[in-house]
Structures are given as structure tokens and as C-alpha cells.
Write the C-alpha cells for this entry.
Amino acid sequence: MKILVTGARGFVGARIMAALEGAEAVPSLQGLGEDDVLRLIDAAEPDVIVHTAAISDIPTCEKNPEASFHANVEIPVWLAKAGVKCVLFSTDQVYSGCESEGPYREEETCPANVYAAHKLEMEQRVLKINDRSVLLRATWMYDMPMYGVPNRDNFLISMLRKPEVSFSSTQHRAVTYVREVAEWMNKAITLPGGIYNYGSENRLTMKETAAWLKEELSLPVAIREAGPRHNLWMDCSRIRAQGIRFADTTGGLRQCIKDYSL
Ligand SMILES: NC(=O)c1ccc[n+]([C@@H]2O[C@H](COP(=O)([O-])OP(=O)(O)OC[C@H]3O[C@@H](n4cnc5c(N)ncnc54)[C@H](OP(=O)(O)O)[C@@H]3O)[C@@H](O)[C@H]2O)c1
């Protein structure tokens, strides 16, 4: 099976390239128009497209909504128009304005920033064009740096390297080991079309999660209170019912600690 991966040199894409059999990198889509994207896909004749390319930094999207719209809505919509099965990354930020406590099921969305609003619009438009499309709502992901891949600020690296971090003692959200996200892709590409919360669940608040990791690794980092934040935690029962079972947040962190002998 020929699987094209967009954003193949990015944080998630590079791990998917390593974990997914048959994966081939797509050249950068940055700045391309609809015809260019469709030509590129037609020429490659893939069976599946895994789309990770995006502008995923929330402040960048707030400052430049046009660029966010192009990257986070238009490009994925054009990929869906190619008529090939697409597996596309979305985000738990679609829950960022939800009033209820959570954990959130896929139907309960309320995006509170430009990035989240564009991702939600992308999900809806892509599914309308091609109902075989699989939309994966990912949590904040972490890993140690990977050789040759630009490193992203992430929960684990912050905890290991910063003298001080700030997390809320009221915010519920999960963080997920990105290698698990990549390893489940072999199964994710076979999912029926639809939207799936795709990552770890977490019963702890972010401050409790940070305190757990500090204790586990005897880290010197100081953990400050960040004040109340909106919850982002997801109910992942839909993806579990499809046989994709992530470790919970502390279980994923334990696995990462073991993998890297931290
Ligand atoms: N990282 C997280 O914790 C996280 C959390 C939730 C959801 N997500 C979602 O997961 C997916 C992968 O995230 P990531 O962390 O791997 O992203 P990333 O490393 O920031 O970027 C992935 C790739 O996107 C492409 N890209 C950058 N700017 C672009 C633009 N203006 N137009 C088109 N493509 C552009 C680049 O690939 P090229 O060099 O090939 O252009 C880049 O390597 C994204 O859809 C993101 O929204 C990530």
C-alpha cells in the first residue's frame, strides 16, 4: 500500500515516517494552490494520505489568520478533493471554549482560538467532500528530540530542562507520547470515516501530572500555579471501541522514561 505523509519532517510526521510501513514523504505543501496540490497527488497515485502538515502554533495562527486558513483549512480540503482516503490530524483545542467540565466526546465542540476554529472548519468541510476521511483529534504530544528533526517545545522537555514551569491545578487535559500516536497509525488508516479523539486520557490535572513526573524522575524543576484554564480532556471511548487503546498519561510517560532510560 502506498501511503503519502505530509509534514514528513515535522514533529509528528517524522515519527509516523519511522513507524508506518509504506510511508512516503510528500514535498512541502507550503504556499501551494489547489491545482498544484491536486497535480501532486494525482501524479503520486497513493492509496492513503496521512496529513500532518499544519500551522499548529496557536499564537502564530492568532497573528496571521490568513496563513492559518491556507495551511489548516484550504490545503486539507484540497487533499480531500483528490478522492483518496485521507487521515488528517486535528486537535483537542476544538474543546477550548467548552463550558462543561468534560471529558469531552467528539460532538461537544467550542473552539476558542483561530487555530481551533480552523481545525474544526477543516474537519467539517473534509468530511462533507469525502466521508471516508478520518479526523484524529490529538492532544499535546511529547518526546525526546529526534535526530535530524526540529524539536518542538513539549511537556517532557519543559519538565526536564526548565528551572520553572507553570501549570493549572484545575485544568484537566492529557499529554500523549507521540511514539504511541505514530505506532497506532497502521490501524488508524483502516478506521471508518469520521472524527475520533485520538490520544491518552488523564484523570489528573496538569499540575498533578507535572508533580507526578517531577517525583518520578526526581527533577529539580519548580512547579508554579498557572491559574484556572479551560479543560481539554477527551473521552476516547470511540477510538477504543475501534481497538486503538492508548496508555493513560502517566502510563505513556512511564513508557517514554523506560524507552529513553531517563
Ligand atoms: N504537536 C502537538 O503537540 C500537536 C497537538 C495537537 C494537534 N497537533 C496536530 O498534529 C499535526 C502535526 O503537528 P506537528 O507538531 O508535527 O506540527 P509541526 O512539526 O509544527 O509542523 C508539521 C509540518 O507542517 C508543515 N508546515 C509548516 N508550516 C506550514 C504552512 N504554512 N503550510 C503548510 N504546511 C506547513 C511543515 O512541513 P513541510 O516542511 O513539509 O512544509 C512542518 O514540518 C498538525 O495537524 C497539528 O495541528 C499537534
Q: What stands out?
A: The first strand starts at residue 3 and ends at 6. The first helix runs from residue 11 to 19.
